[in-house]
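Project standup — Tuesday

K.O.: blocked on the structure for the chain from last sprint. Re-posting the sequence here as requested.
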Amino acid sequence: MTKGEVLMMADVLSQEKELEKDVVFLAIEAALATATRKRHREDIEVRVSIDRETGDYEAFRQWEIVDEDTDLESPTRQMTLPAANISYPDVAHEVGGFVEEPLEVVSKFGRIEAQAAKQVINQKVREAERSRIYETFKDRVGEMVQGVVKRVGHREAIVDIESVEASLPRSTWIDREALRNGDRIKSILTEVRSEARGPQLILDRRSSELVIELFKLEVPEVGQGIIEILGASRDPGSRAKIAVRSNDPKIDPVGACVGMRGARVQAVSNELAGERIDIVLWDDNPAQLVINAMQPAEVASIVMDEESHSMDIAVEDESALAQAIGRSGQNIRLASELVWILTINLHSPKAS
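H.V.: unblocked you, prediction finished:
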């Protein structure tokens, strides 16, 4: 391998794999060391050093320095400390260090040596690429990410996230969602696993956090902190409730989240497979908060029991009762979940 080929390989792999050049040079050095070892019949240790500017490289044979009382397991790779002091008196030595001497640089390798070098480079580059992916995503757990569906299987969909494959398990799909190749979707990154086959990125579209993050994206006032989304409860793909409040008395938080002609809330709903979203106005009064959370049902009266942290809600007639309960109890359940989340997050009296 000529110095020009070394530099060209470093450039190409660095750009293709988005790796730092020094990482690629280390992989090439390991590959050249492996190929050089195969040229020698003895089981020797080899170190190769490449000049990052010129591409010139040198090879050295190494011996590990061990204590004088240690039985040499590999005499061709090890040397006792007294022997190192005798053989190389001009260099300071210590146990665990190395002594080395130059080896003839091999510029042309046979088929076997070249194949071994190629395998080492591929392995080292894959390891470096996996490490880069893990370091890039490990601190982003809980964030919303956007990607393109690459392929859909029985157990999961594979989503391309910033040129990295991530898994969206079937159990985390929105109900009745039909994903297809090429679909652009947003999800919450819930886990980054470091495994032998490489980092595994796990996504979730059922998380309540996804609704909150989508409103942050669609409503500038939320992103700026003027409006706060205090919590959310969901039946993914069917209905959700979010609680909002404004830090500016001049701005209506519900109207801002709905948007002109419902454009903002509709954009969020479209991303969630048509999920209906109720926007609930926060209130410091727990009873009024529950009344707001029960919308669109009209509450006629409410009685709060502070000892049991419960509330009894009354409505005027059967039709209002059906609306308050909702289909399969959905409305009252989501309202209850939302109020519970808010009381936990904001340390308000518990409600049920």
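K.O.: great, moving the ticket to review. Residues 348-352 have pLDDT under 50 and may be disordered. Residues 111-137 form the longest helix (27 residues).
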